[in-house]
Amino acid sequence: MEDALEKKSKKMKDRGLHKNLKEYSQRNGRPRPPNSHALQAGIKAFLESPAGHSLLTEKGIDLESLELPKRFTIYEPLLLLPANAFTAPPAWRVIYAALTAEQQEDLYASIARSFRRLGVTHVAMNAPIALNNVKGAENRMRSPAGLVPLYGDFKNSRLDSLSGDENAQPSAEDLEAAFWVQTVQNNGIKQTWAPLYTMFSRGNITEKARILGKGSSANTFEGLDAASLGQNVADISVVDMYAGIGYFVFSYLKRGVKRVWGWELNGWSVEGLRRGCIANKWGCRVVRVHEDGHMDFSISALVASLADSDRVVVFHGDNTFASEILAEVQRAISEREKWSPIRHVNLGLLPSSSQSWDKACRVLDFQQGGWLHVHENVDVRRIEEKKEEIARELTALRVRVYEEHGISGASIVECHHVEHVKTYAPGVMHCVFDMRVSAPI
Ligand SMILES: C[S@@+](CC[C@H](N)C(=O)[O-])C[C@H]1O[C@@H](n2cnc3c(N)ncnc32)[C@H](O)[C@@H]1O
């Protein structure tokens, strides 16, 4: 059985499908990939050991009728278990709760063994990203502080390297020594990250598909084709105010935009973005922007050394400086060559991206306008209302920007589409509002 599994897995790998298969989560009766029983097999192997067997006898539970958890995700070489992997179903919870620390270690090792043929060397348990840290302050970098390493050497532990401060920046040595994982999504786009320090949201896969032009006709992502842009997609730039490890950046690049200007606070994510660019063969430049807004690199030096192959420039710092810095970049580039106007701004922060709406209105091309993609968590009963509220606020912000720059004409900001990305919590939907910002009229 295992040999057949391995053969099938190898065949899929050869056909380039292997990673997509691993992205698969066993839910909702969708067809199962051939490795779907690997978690149960690993747990069963442990329960068949003398220690496991005596526990089953003690609790009066029969292994054959015991229901075991099934769900897992592989981000090679990490096996990631859901937060409830050891608390449901109920009979399994009873057994797991009775395990000694040593027995737990044996269980994790047995699970890891079961996935070894699929490239797994580490096991961890996932946890939702907390919006606040243990001290009550905002977890601005959305660090996955709750992720629990279970098996394997995770190198520098969070507590050793960062003294428990999840907002601290990593040193070059931290980055070098850390445990990195990768996955392939949406048409072969590679993504890399250090799971102890950076969140990864698989739920955004549909939004990435939309940017790639692979959505349905009902949820088209406007403004990435010549007809809706009024110019070639290869001649425009995009700003991602919350670039992360490149979740959306890579989709825009694959769609063919000339360059993405990204902003990202978290040094771990910036490094993931840089490594991901290398893996996908896109040039990437990283510019550190310190807390007071000063940069390690002068803008003229950056612009002078920028090659066409540098498809991403990521500013490692707070996007509060985005409009001033990008205005200078535009001036410096325009002196040397044709500037590729910024026609899209992605605003991917939950529960709300409103803190950067003003900056977004300032960086979007003044003459042609474009699209702002506003991510928000919204009460499902208030989505229509929210749409109007965002349009009103963005219109007011854009008008103010025109006034400040002496541009005559009004601005129309309209919502052309609301994408329901995923249910964030009961009654709360992660929505993306595609806001069309007109040229001055
Ligand atoms: C939700 S996460 C990743 C976003 C990604 N677009 C996604 O949807 O999966 C938000 C990211 O924004 C970064 N971030 C939060 N506030 C920021 C700010 N003011 N400037 C730059 N980056 C910021 C965090 O470090 C985090 O990596």
TrEMBL record:
<protein>
    <recommendedName>
        <fullName>tRNA wybutosine-synthesizing protein 2</fullName>
    </recommendedName>
</protein>
<comment type="similarity">
    <text>Belongs to the class I-like SAM-binding methyltransferase superfamily. TRM5/TYW2 family.</text>
</comment>
<keyword id="KW-0949">S-adenosyl-L-methionine</keyword>
<comment type="pathway">
    <text>tRNA modification; wybutosine-tRNA(Phe) biosynthesis.</text>
</comment>
<dbReference type="InterPro" id="IPR026274">
    <property type="entry name" value="tRNA_wybutosine_synth_prot_2"/>
</dbReference>
<dbReference type="InterPro" id="IPR030382">
    <property type="entry name" value="MeTrfase_TRM5/TYW2"/>
</dbReference>
<dbReference type="GO" id="GO:0005737">
    <property type="term" value="C:cytoplasm"/>
</dbReference>
<dbReference type="GO" id="GO:0102522">
    <property type="term" value="F:tRNA 4-demethylwyosine alpha-amino-alpha-carboxypropyltransferase activity"/>
</dbReference>
<feature type="region of interest" description="Disordered">
    <location>
        <begin position="1"/>
        <end position="36"/>
    </location>
</feature>
<keyword id="KW-0963">Cytoplasm</keyword>
<dbReference type="GO" id="GO:0030488">
    <property type="term" value="P:tRNA methylation"/>
</dbReference>
<dbReference type="GO" id="GO:0008757">
    <property type="term" value="F:S-adenosylmethionine-dependent methyltransferase activity"/>
</dbReference>
<dbReference type="GO" id="GO:0008175">
    <property type="term" value="F:tRNA methyltransferase activity"/>
</dbReference>
<feature type="domain" description="SAM-dependent methyltransferase TRM5/TYW2-type">
    <location>
        <begin position="108"/>
        <end position="439"/>
    </location>
</feature>
<dbReference type="InterPro" id="IPR029063">
    <property type="entry name" value="SAM-dependent_MTases_sf"/>
</dbReference>
<feature type="compositionally biased region" description="Basic and acidic residues">
    <location>
        <begin position="14"/>
        <end position="25"/>
    </location>
</feature>
<keyword id="KW-0819">tRNA processing</keyword>
<keyword id="KW-0808">Transferase</keyword>
<dbReference type="GO" id="GO:0031591">
    <property type="term" value="P:wybutosine biosynthetic process"/>
</dbReference>
<comment type="function">
    <text>S-adenosyl-L-methionine-dependent transferase that acts as a component of the wybutosine biosynthesis pathway. Wybutosine is a hyper modified guanosine with a tricyclic base found at the 3'-position adjacent to the anticodon of eukaryotic phenylalanine tRNA.</text>
</comment>
